[in-house]
Amino acid sequence: MLAMRRREFITLLGSATILSSRAGAADSYPTRPIRLVVPFPAGGGTDIVARVLGQKLSEGLGQQIVIDNRGGAGGTIGTALAAKSAPDGYTLVLVPTSHVINPSIYAKLPYDTEKDFAPITMVASAAILMAVHPSVPADTIAAFVEAAKARPQALGTYGSAGSGTVFHLAGELFKQLTGLPLLHVPYRGGGPTVTGLMAGDIPLAFETMLALQPHVRAGTLRALAITSTRRSTVMPDIPTTAEAGFPQLVADNSYALFAPAGTPGPILTRLHDATTAALALPEVRERLREQGAEVVGNTSAELAAYVAAEIPKWAALARQAGVKPE
Question: How far is it, in rounded angstroms, from Cα 171 to Cα 41?
Fold first, then answer.
């Protein structure tokens, strides 16, 4: 009996020591730079949001936020890297809506979308534009459909930031709604997609207003519509897809911040508080709004609920659009 009590005491003492060390680590966190993985190349919407957030988050935490662009495979390469990183608060990942679509697109992911990540907050949500190269003889969706039917070889492709992204699925829904036999051209992210569109390698692309707006304003690209139920306050002249006769073609791109599963609760709380404080700054809200994104900054529980609800929703839409797992 005495030996059993001694073992119980040692176990309790060990647990208390672990909890105490974790609490101490959280109190001093962070003591070195934090890596923020962006699972897409520089220049796209996810990268833009990460850099706007990272600058102010660095100030709030007192440590540098280092952006680590790891594009490829619809964002799964960089996301897997984050999932397998040490759960110590020094590796974070910012993912777009593709995070909850990928389970329906890829037959086997190198991580569990719900179990391998600790939610911090939804950072922002950005509108999606349908844009064409200036050489395309169309300034509306209806005109593009007619032109693509007449010139299928020249206008028979569309580009996106990669298989499994919300842009890919929006394009597949567009194909289904119009009957156009468009070929999907997946790029490694929003930046390369915009580059391909500007070069004329593809006639049409679906991408965030964050990435396309500067080029549309400059006249180097032409926007056909915004895939939203309401017009953007930033670019109010662009009609919605519903106004253009395609009310089913509605989607946006939300950006969420996660840490690897197992990250201590006090560190997650510190990260959540610092992130939402940065998002509350007028200059951050305005910079994102100017790019066509709206700040969210919800609770970690709300982000977890979003992930749980969105996975089956996008699975149904993927089936509807005829997108099969790769």
Answer: 21
Reduced DSSP (H G I as helix, E B as strand, rest coil) percent helix, strand, coil of the chain, to 5: 50, 20, 35
Q: Is 33-125+253-321's fold the same as 127-226's?
A: yes
Q: Which CATH architecture does the domain made up of 127-226 adopt?
A: 3-Layer(aba) Sandwich (3.40)
Q: Are 216 and 235 in contact (CB under 8 A)?
A: yes
Residue-wise pLDDT tens for the chain (326 aa)?
A: 445 455 554 454 555 454 444 455 567 999 999 999 999 999 889 999 999 999 999 999 999 999 999 998 889 999 999 999 999 999 999 999 999 999 998 889 999 999 999 999 999 998 899 999 999 999 999 999 999 999 999 999 999 998 888 999 999 999 999 999 999 999 988 999 999 999 999 999 999 988 999 999 999 999 999 998 889 888 999 999 999 999 999 888 999 999 999 999 999 999 999 999 999 999 999 999 888 888 999 999 999 999 999 999 889 888 877 787 66
pTM of the model: 0.83
What totals of helices (H) and strands (E) does the chain contain, helices first?
A: 12, 10
The strand pairing partners of 37, in sequence order, are: 68, 93
Tell the CATH topology of 33-125+253-321: D-Maltodextrin-Binding Protein; domain 2 (3.40.190)
How many Cα atoms occupy the beta-carbon half-sphere of 128 within 13 Å? Answer: 29
| DSSP H stretches of helix in the chain | 2-28, 45-61, 76-83, 98-105, 141-150, 152-155, 166-178, 190-199, 209-218, 265-279, 282-290, 300-321
Spatial contact of 170 and 128, defined as CB atoms under 8 Å apart: yes
Provide the residue type at 37 as one letter: V
Domain ranges of the chain: 33-125+253-321, 127-226
On whether the CB atoms of residues 123 and 94 are closer than 8 A, the answer is yes
